[in-house]
Amino acid sequence: MTERLYGLGMRDATLGYGRGGPVIEDLSLTIPSRRFTALLGPNGCGKSTILHGLAGLHTPQCGEVVLDGKSIRALGTKALARRVGLLAQTASAPDGLTVGELVRQGRYPHRPVFGAWSGADEDAVESALRRTSMTGYRDRPVDSLSGGQRQRAWIAMTLAQQSDILLLDEPTTYLDLAHQIDVLGLMRRLVDQEGATVVAVLHDLVQAARYADHLVLIRGGRIVAQGAPISVLTPENVKAVFGVDVVILSDPDSAAPICLPRCNGAATSNPQA
Q: What is the dihedral of CA 264, 232, 21, 244, to 10 degrees?
């Protein structure tokens, strides 16, 4: 039997907000299945807009978002949520909500409106807590946790959703280095051990190159380069996207590219110049 490959992407999509001009225009993007993709670019370039479009939270003005070759408009909200999970950057929980209660909310796409809590639901919650090392925090209020613990609780909720495609908007922001490594290592294991497709908005080029399989560099709502880290993170591409002169070294452990700003590599006002 031919193994099914899941595919998410955009076809000629234009996305914007209100009466302002488009943030993303005529963008086509294919997310590699069962790989870790990192979206990279300066603030305001459209990374989060792309992520929300892929999750079905932002409808394109033109073009479409596709899943397995079909427009996601043909899917209902729950059907899409069973396939695509999103951890938004601005996620917040009501005061007093415990970690266990938060993670249980990830089961909503799988439960009928008046359905009883099932053994499958409980197993999914327990697995999500275990994989994020949050089992011991089950009864703790989310608002009492540290930044890293809180982020892992939200990731656990997303994992309980059991979607095969996970979208994460800046999952390492505000975390210290140890917790950043924990979160990125978890994403890497989900891809390698469970065959998940992970897409994350990241800012650290070194971490993106080390943990992700596929990088997408974005500037002004357009894709400048995409592909394997070693082919994408070149001095020319980094200059075009971030306006910074860099030297590229090789990671001694992974051989992934390391971008180091040159001593005179301050960002320019016009990176295309």
A: 0
